[in-house]
Amino acid sequence: MKAEVILSDDYRPTEDEPFMNERQLKYFRQKLMDWKADLLDDSKSTIEELQQSTRNIPDIADRASEETDRALELRTRDRQRKLVSKIDAAIRRIDEGEYGYCEETGEQISLKRLDARPIATLSLEAQERHERAEKVHRDD
Fold first, then answer.
1. Could you point out which of 33, 42, 60, 136 has its C-alpha 20 to 30 Å from the C-alpha of 13?
2. CA–CA distance, 94 with 111 (Å, rounded to integer)
3. Rg of the Cα trace of the chain?
């Protein structure tokens, strides 16, 4: 039976420990789970607000303004829904032992990059190549 890895509140992964050791994996899993919980809480409160704010507004300009606000809020929630699925995919990669490695090159993704963007699937260099290629195709 494995001993439970306990993280202190101030733990941050460092380059001088083995890459994706148990502590790092637990750290990133917790970071992803906390992020997902925050997004889901935001989503729940938005749904409640939208349900409560459904009202008949006689002034056309006010109604248009409210509809624009609702559309913007729904678009934001849709982006967050997609983000939750990326978070779930990152958690799955942790479970499968693939987390932290570039899906294009197989190289380690830097801890700094993962800490800033825990859903990253590409190393910084691969991401930059991807973005340059995307820009070239967009400019066609």
1. 42
2. 14
3. 20
Length reported for the chain: 140
Residue with tokens 């978070």: 87
Say which DSSP state 59 is in. S
Identify the band that residue 8 occupies on the pLDDT scale cut at 50, 70 and 90. Answer: confident
Q: What total number of domains does the chain contain?
A: 2
Q: In this structure, are 118 and 63 located in the same domain?
A: no
pLDDT band for 124, please (50, 70, 90 cuts): very high
Question: In the predicted model, what is the mean pLDDT of residues 118-129?
Answer: 95
Structural domain boundaries enclosing 140:
101-140
At 16, list the tokens.
């001088």
- CATH number for the domain harbouring residue 86: 1.20.120.910
CB 31 within 8 A of CB 112: no
